[in-house]
């Protein structure tokens, strides 16, 4: 999952680490007398509990001979202050130094289908985090860059998760969840997976086929219901989707079923008729949760559709299917930032069990772990 993106992030880390390492190498190259002066300055300014100096940035520690003469003072002053910073386990990175790696990262993210505004946000975060200010690094420059990248990625991916199970627990029953999205992205399969997941969490559910538009939709969802052993409410093809979901809510109410999972026709976001059906469903049934479903592999297209569906009937969260087949990761990185709503689950295969609750920290850990390989 997201292997192409992992490689690209790893390349950025290597380039940016080189920039930080170069500062340390320059420091090591200084003549002994300057190094001694540096050490004195560092000793003067270092707090008593100063952290251990990073391996890569270790200043010269051997005492040395003469002090620099007056001519050297100006040039050594900047060096002294920087080296003193290094001695305290701190580093300063110039914006100019970081520009080339950041440009590479920008291309790499765009190539991975990360949305433009999301790319800009990530770059701004990294710049703000790394450039100019003295940054403490206790272990290595690697940690410094990794932390900046981690924070930048989390800032766009983590828009405030909510746990669907907690939401269901705290909402009066039956809880109605409606699924929207375009054709053929795995919506019906995702509903079936979620019924299985909710069962494992102790909740019963009823399926409702609000996709009255497509021939064969009733049969498709009924097959899933049978395989899962749950009730399924359907109407004839061409019927009113709102009426189907409404009936399912009544059924759940009468039979103590916890959750109604309502499918809708896989509509084109450009289809006014189908979009107005969605607005009616929203108005009449007033679902507790509306989930937008799309394919991770659709990249920017999925992100654009999420934005448009959110406008038609406010989305509470997204499920991205086919994450198992997605090397780019663009939609997974972008969709939360663009909609302001979290990704709730990732679909990771065709089996009912292949639905993973989404955890931004775990995703970022995974994306950054590749470069340790
Ligand atoms: N690899 C993989 N396949 C998936 C995943 N989710 C769904 N699929 C497959 O994608 C295909 C389409 O899924 P459906 O559930 O029929 O899609 P749909 O959105 O309901 O399609 P419509 O009913 O036409 O709107 C099926 O073969 C699913 O098994 C996933 O996370 N990973």
From TrEMBL:
PROSITE patterns: SRP54
SUPFAM superfamilies xrefs: Domain of the SRP/SRP receptor G-proteins (SSF47364), P-loop containing nucleoside triphosphate hydrolases (SSF52540)
Domain of life: Archaea
Subcellular location(s) per record: Cell membrane; Cytoplasm
Gene Ontology MF: a single term: GTPase activity
All residue ranges annotated as the SRP54-type proteins GTP-binding domain in the record: 342-355
Top class in the EC scheme: hydrolase
Annotated Gene Ontology cellular component terms: cytoplasm; membrane; plasma membrane
One Pfam family here: SRP54_N
Acidic residues bias (residue ranges): 15-37
Reactions catalysed: GTP + H2O = GDP + phosphate + H(+)
Subunit structure: Part of the signal recognition particle protein translocation system, which is composed of SRP and FtsY.
Function: Involved in targeting and insertion of nascent membrane proteins into the cytoplasmic membrane. Acts as a receptor for the complex formed by the signal recognition particle (SRP) and the ribosome-nascent chain (RNC).
Alphabetized NCBIfam families for the sequence: ftsY (TIGR00064)
Record protein name field: Signal recognition particle receptor FtsY
Source organism: Halobacterium salinarum (strain ATCC 700922 / JCM 11081 / NRC-1)
The organism's taxonomic lineage, starting at the top: Archaea, Methanobacteriati, Methanobacteriota, Stenosarchaea group, Halobacteria
Gene encoding the protein: dpa
């Amino acid at each position: 999952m997201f292997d192409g993106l992992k490689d690209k992030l790893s390349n950025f880390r290597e380039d940016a680490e080189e920039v930080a390492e170069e500062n340390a190498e320059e420091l090591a190259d200084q003549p002994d007398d300057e190094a001694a002066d540096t050490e004195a300055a560092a000793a003067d300014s270092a707090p008593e509990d100063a952290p251990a100096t990073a391996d890569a940035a270790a200043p010269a520690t051997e005492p040395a001979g003469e002090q620099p003469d007056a001519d050297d003072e100006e040039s050594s002053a900047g060096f002294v202050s920087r080296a003193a910073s290094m001695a305290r386990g701190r580093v300063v990175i110039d914006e100019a130094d970081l520009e080339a790696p950041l440009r590479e990262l920008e291309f790499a993210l765009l190539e991975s289908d990360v949305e433009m505004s999301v790319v800009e946000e990530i770059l701004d975060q990294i710049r703000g985090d790394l450039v100019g200010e003295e940054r403490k690094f206790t272990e290595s420059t690697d940690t410094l860059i990794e932390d900046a990248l981690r924070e930048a990625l989390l800032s766009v991916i983590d828009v405030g998760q909510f746990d669907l199970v907690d939401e269901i627990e705290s909402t009066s029953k039956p809880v109605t969840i409606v699924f929207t999205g375009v054709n053929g992205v795995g919506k019906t399969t995702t509903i079936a997976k979620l019924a299985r997941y909710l069962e494992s969490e102790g909740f019963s559910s009823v399926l409702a086929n609000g996709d009255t538009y497509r021939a064969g939709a009733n049969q498709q969802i009924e097959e899933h219901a049978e395989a899962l052993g749950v009730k399924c409410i359907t109407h004839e093809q061409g019927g009113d989707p709102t009426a189907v979901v409404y009936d399912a809510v009544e059924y759940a109410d009468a039979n103590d079923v916890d959750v109604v999972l309502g499918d809708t026709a896989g509509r084109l976001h450009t289809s006014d008729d189908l979009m107005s059906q969605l607005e009616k469903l929203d108005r009449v049934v007033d679902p507790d949760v509306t989930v937008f479903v799309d394919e991770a592999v659709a990249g920017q297209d999925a992100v654009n559709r999420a934005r448009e569906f959110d406008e038609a009937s406010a989305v509470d969260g997204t499920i991205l299917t086919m994450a198992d087949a997605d090397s780019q990761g663009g939609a997974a990185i972008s969709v939360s930032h663009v909609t302001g709503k979290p990704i709730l689950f990732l679909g990771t295969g065709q089996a009912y069990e292949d639905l993973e609750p989404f955890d931004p920290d775990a995703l970022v850990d995974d994306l950054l772990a590749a470069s340790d390989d």
